[in-house]
Amino acid sequence: MKMPFYQLQHKQDLIRHFTPNWFTVVMGTGVVALILPELPFGAVWMWSLGASLWQVNVAVFILFSVLYICRWILFPKEAKQIFQHPVMCLFLGAIPMALATLLNGALKFGSDLYGVSYQADILRWVEYLWYVDVGMAVAIAWLVPFFMFSRQQHALEGMTAVWLLPIVACEVAASSAALLLVHLPTDAHAVNILLGSYVLWGMSVLPAFAILTILLLRLALHQLPSKDMAISSWLALGPIGTGALALLLLGEQAPRILGAIDMASLGTILEQGGLVVALILLGFGLWWLGIAILTTLKHLRDLPFNLGWWAMTFPLGVFTLAVMKLAAQTQLESIAMCGNVFALLLCALWFMVISKTLLGCYRGSLFFSPCLKAYRETLRTQP
């Protein structure tokens, strides 16, 4: 039964119903924190706001992690039902992506917030946690689709862009690797991270494009998704924007890193080729953005709020970061203006969604686990 947060009589009520889709809050907030300092006005104030938002986001991630771990400890039978649920299981991919935004923020804000004397320690922890992030991303990219193939029931007419979530985490980790490489010396270790990141990119972008192809067929044959899943259309921007961003960031580091093994010319090819491919990907993303906006407007009058609304933040955020990075590498003011417009739109959407999320938490309408409901229904139907 749903009840206001302040009326929850047992902390176990919150733990029992905690699901991984809450980590999309960290994803969306984290990407906003990274974008705020990139806006062309109020540089000092925007940097401070972004740094404060990142610190709050770290605390929220820790809280959510504790709650989800406690669910597995206190209610293991109920928690493992997530692997049977055809939708909630997909949100496991949000956990490594949420962690990646925090690692990126640590590289961006850490040394200035905590002092240059802690820079080496921050970098060491970011590198350790990046390997943890990669491990989770790869495991989820393998296991969740396997559960889809072996345990769950899916149909083409019920497909949405949520299918992308367990796949995209690998390319998000690849983008984070490029930011980490900026701070690492040019040696064999850095070469392994660079080349491994391109492998992660391939593990994510190519399956994601296969999913987008099937999604396009599903939309043509079965029309738009239902109003409660309409916002999921924004998720299509995720793999496209992150794929473009990873190519730009990795390509920027490739000539320096590959020079350590006398392959600087290959690094130049990756840098220039990444810019061209990123430009094409951003054009593809712009098409999906238009479809997402039109789908949202179609259901705007009776669109119910749920945590799925966070799909409007992180995908648009990584798309915006890719546009801003492209503008920085090409030095074209027109692209920079587009990036700023997207950034302002993102901030407006984030403010709307976080306001509704906080209100939903107060009312208790968001404390609900679909996989727990399905599990209880299964128990009732058993003889």
Structural features, described:
The protein has 383 residues and is mostly helical. It is 72% helix and 0% strand. It is built from 13 helices and no strands. It has helices spanning 11-16, 23-35, 43-74, 76-79, 94-114, 119-150, 165-181, 188-222, 237-258, 264-298, 314-330, 333-363, 370-381. The longest helix is centred in the middle third of the chain and has 35 residues, at 188-222. The relative contact order is 0.13. The mean pLDDT is 92.
List the helices and strands and how they pair.
Blueprint: H1 11-16, H2 23-35, H3 43-74, H4 76-79, H5 94-114, H6 119-150, H7 165-181, H8 188-222, H9 237-258, H10 264-298, H11 314-330, H12 333-363, H13 370-381
Helix pairs in contact: 2-3, 2-5, 2-11, 2-12, 3-5, 5-6, 5-7, 6-7, 7-8, 7-9, 8-9, 9-10, 9-11, 10-11, 11-12
Descriptors:
383 residues, mainly alpha, 13 helices, 72% helix, 0% strand, globular
Percent of residues in β-strands: under 5%
What's the end-to-end separation, in Å?
25 Å
Q: How many helical elements?
A: 13
Structural class: mainly alpha
Query: How large is the radius of gyration?
Result: 21 Å
The SSE string, one letter per element, is HHHHHHHHHHHHH
Label the overall shape. Answer: globular
Describe the structure concisely for a colleague.
The protein is mainly alpha-helical and 383 residues long. It is 72% helix and 0% strand.
